[in-house]
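User: quick one
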Amino acid sequence: MKDILTAPFMVEMIRTATNMYAHGWDERNGGNISLMLEESGVSEYLDTQNVLRKIPTGFTAPELDGKYFLVTGTGKYFKNVQYAPDVNLGVVRLTEQGRQAELLWGYTDGGQFTSEFPAHMMSHVARLKVDPKNRVVMHCHPANLLAMTYVHDLDEKKFTRTLWQMCTECIVVFPEGVNVLPWMLCGTNEIGEATAEKMRTARLVVWSQHGIYGAGKDLDETFGLIETAEKAAEIYMKIAHLPLVNTITDEQMHRLEKRFGIKAREGYLEE
Ligand code: 2HA
Ligand code: ZN
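Assistant: Done. Structure below.
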């Protein structure tokens, strides 16, 4: 059996959590990541018959039965992931229609997966229906996106258009836009279901006055999505109080669509 700390998925996860902390997106125990793993990849590093503990999930997700995930732990600090991955991360397999998680590795201090596990797993289900290659769900608290939810209209089309107008590349990186949830109580199945519903039409879902969810095919892509949206929000927060003299027009956005072979969300641009 190979050392799991050398597995590419583990190395990438540790680097990503460390980088997210360095970006200031994950103060204290803020943020969480789940990465779906292939059974064939896991079995190179772990005896998949050796279940350490069973942890009830509190929801059902039959679509994820038998699926493996590497997940950040509840109450754990991204800052510490690189120093003690086996305490701060865990590998689980969902069973019993998603009602149970079998712990195969990690959470060595007796801990368990993130309190946002419902939002993560329900988002995986929603994204896999749209994109079978989706593997990652990522949540964090980037300051400018959060700030924007205090001063900007939360209408999804308006919020998206503002972000698109802040950097030329935004519409190319997230042509489907960002969806927005109003403030809701975090850590619940309700916010999980609401997030998953929003994930059907976009890979980015803003949680007003809290943070953002991103989804993608790998950790890099998902990080990059959030990074791009957060950069746009940063520019917005720098200029929102100043007179707007220039912007990126819808006509220019259409030229970007042609140049990069993307299609902006239906109805979000003027013809
Ligand atoms: O505690 O970010 O939303 C981690 C969180 C909860
Ligand atoms: Zn959070």
